[in-house]
Amino acid sequence: MAIETVNPRTDGDTGGDAEDIPLDPVFALHRGGKMEIASTVPVRDAADLSLAYTPGVAEVCTAIAEQPELVHDYTWTSQTVAVVTDGTAVLGLGDIGPRASLPVMEGKAILFKQFGGVDAVPIALDCTDVDEIVETVVRLAPSFGGVNLEDISAPRCFEIERRLKERLDVPVFHDDQHGTAVVTLAALRNAAKLTGRRLGDLRAVISGAGAAGVAIARILLEAGVGDVAVADRKGVVHAGRDDLNPVKRELASYTNRAGLAGSLEEALAGADVFIGVSGGTVAERAVASMAPGAFVFAMANPTPEVHPDVARRHAAVVATGRSDFPNQINNVLAFPGIFAGALQVRASAITEGMKLAAAEALAGVVGAELSAECVIPSPFDPRVAPAVTAAVAAAARAEGVARR
Fold first, then answer.
1. What is the Cα–Cα distance from 382 to 115, expressed in whole angstroms?
2. Do 204 and 227 contact (CB within 8 A), yes or no?
3. How far is CA 355 from CA 14, 18, 168, in A?
4. Element holding 364 (H helix, E strand)
5. At 371, phi and psi to the nearest 5?
6. SS3 108
7. Are 277 and 212 spatial neighbours (Cβ–Cβ below 8 Å)?
8. Interatomic CA distance for residues 386 and 367, integer angstroms
């Protein structure tokens, strides 16, 4: 892609050197990156220098060597997260590699800071092998209080997260899975409340058996949703299929209690909930076949599986992944507060209970504003992060993973 640029020193002549400024405002905003490292202490004179660096710093180093847990009190680790990717599943762009992923990882880092007060460092790894990624992150882990895995393709992402959880004593969280799941559950709680139904009364169909689809299915069942069927490109995932990878075989073992075996569109007949996290298009006739008062969460970006105008003809509540329609299912509603709560109590992990607590707190923010156009709060609602942070911290203590 050619980028048209303008150099202010040549008064509008186009050029291609490193000092040229793109005309496109997107490139102008990203020029030089979107973040920087800033000092939290002054270094104005020799006295400051002797405290911040040598010789004073040696006292702190010695203390940490004798009591390793002090690293959380006297370094940035207690408030800093590594945002780790291999660039294989970036924001709907797919496998674009580690360098091209960096603008997204920088964006993720500034969202951590803006919405949760958490410092985050983008780390794009030039490898895709599971063993190499795990070993690299384990070796980097002493510098961080948590690890946010980002935009790593399925099914590798499941094994990477599982192995890192086993080896590290800090929170490890794959946001593409769990952030999406938490926000989806929060919106579903409020949609059910709005229409006077219990989660146990609902049958949901998920389009997409990748990272987000699997995590959503798991958290919905944990929360008490009556039944969940998940469909991939070949139809509903069920135990009778002989083409399932290990992740999908496990998925088949705890979903689809109704024993469905057909296509996604066949599964939607009489269903209460459609959740799309796969792209593609769902025919209007399939949406029309859903139960009265259905919920359609078509979250593919930028093109939802069901256009909101079509969905509204048949559904009581419609949500998307886009910011230009009501009820945006946006991960930024979850991950800053989840990590802030985990770091606040120095949690050793992020548990299912902590994720359920985050979803309940997020749903509760809506309160009296609940309507078909508002089942989930705006990412800019200042109540969101504090509510999620407090709920996650309390759940960590209740589940015994808090260390302070």
1. 8
2. yes
3. 51, 45, 19
4. helix 352-366
5. -160, 175
6. helix
7. yes
8. 15
- The β-bridge relationship of strands 172-174 and 203-207 is unpaired
Q: What is the pLDDT of residues 278-323, one digit of tens each?
A: 988 999 999 999 999 999 999 998 899 999 999 999 999 999 999 9
d(CA 93, CA 352): 29
State pLDDT tens for residues 184-221.
999 999 999 999 999 999 999 999 999 999 999 999 99
Best CA proximity match to 81, nearest among 42, 62, 109: 109
Query: How many residues belong to the chain?
Result: 404
The three-class DSSP label of residue 370 is coil
Pick from 285, 289, 283, 282: nearest CA to 203: 289
234 catalytic, yes or no?
A: no
Measure the CA–CA gap between 384 and 338, rounded to whole angstroms: 11
Structure-token match 């992402």, residue found: 157
Task: Tell me if residue 170 falls in helix, strand or coil.
Answer: coil
Q: In this structure, what token pair is assigned to residue 190?
A: 């409020």
Cβ-Cβ contacts under 8 Å for 258 (sequence gap 6 or more): 203, 227, 229
This prediction's pTM = 0.92
Catalytic residue among 34, 53, 113, 193: 53
Q: Which two tokens stand for residue 5?
A: 């640029």
Distance CA 270, CA 297 (A): 16
Q: State the Cα–Cα distance between residues 109 and 118, nearest whole angstrom.
A: 8
CA 309 to chain centre: 27
Q: Active-site residue among 34, 74, 108, 234?
A: 108
Cα gap 326→248, rounded to integer Å? 32
* Ordered strands of the 172-174 beta sheet: 119-124, 80-85, 146-149, 172-174
Residue 108 annotated as catalytic: yes
DSSP 283-340: -HHHHHTSPTTEEEEE--SSS-SS-HHHHTTTEEEEEES-TTSSSB--GGGTHHHHHH
- CB contact set of 97 (below 8 Å; sequence gap of 6+): 87
Cα gap 43→178, rounded to integer Å: 41
Nearest one of 404, 397, 399 to 352, comparing CA atoms: 399
